[in-house]
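Entry for the shared binder. Reason: the reviewer on the internal report wants the predicted structure included alongside the sequence.
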Amino acid sequence: MTAADHMIEGSLPAGPDELFAERVRGLVAERCGYAPRPVALPYLRAVLEQRRAGRTHEDYWSLLQASAPSGGELQHLVEDLLNHDTVCGRTPPHFDVLRQQVLPSLASLGRSLRLASLGCSTGEEAYTLALTVVEAFGTTNSPAVEIVGLDLSRRALATARAGRYQASSLRELTPAQCERGFVRRGNGFEVRPEIARLVRFAQHNLMSPLPLVGIDAIFCRNVLIYFTPASANRVLGYIRDALTPGGWLFLGPTESALHLRESFDPVTFAETLTYRRR
């Protein structure tokens, strides 16, 4: 890619820092799927300047290329770039559908169930899935349920495993849900043991096949919007392979699997669109 590729009519050619940021953006997208949006490139340049710590562009590039997809300097760079802004209960209609429609139909199968939160960040979504399971089945008559949260970020997963949050993370929950799912600890809230026991977390790069099989419902919301179209389709293929036949997929409101009709059937409810594996 040349400087001319980055010229905008009436502007100067991109400088070496801008060109290097674009180069690194491509590497991150290739290895991790995540492609910082053009509007985020100034932030990417700032992070690169800090992480290079005086190294030349080429020296730092060699360091990145030598990193494993989920390790080394590339891991540290992506940790600094990822957005972990999330809350419990985000997009309530999804959890209403899960509680009222999906979980009762799955319970009729008479076997243990497995749910997954992909790009689970600091864990709020995974714990909301567990809370929804308890709301649907209670704590005594529930089928065996395992909820797995996967994310690339080790930092985010450390927070998820701790299960301690500020009140702002619970703002989308009803008072009854807050009471059922959390207990106050000092100036924050901690996930109750009966909720936490349903959930486990693991590091995973979504550009690799999911380390899970036989999943009944997958939440992968507001993750693929940060991926290139090719990478997003690759992840959707891995999701298809991990879901049970008829398994459910929940995407973010601006994400879609409608172009993959050979893999997913859209299912519309009153306030939301979901998908089922064919």
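Summary line for the report: Strands lie at 113-118, 145-151, 164-165, 182-185, 188-191, 199-203, 215-220, 243-251, 264-268, 273-277.
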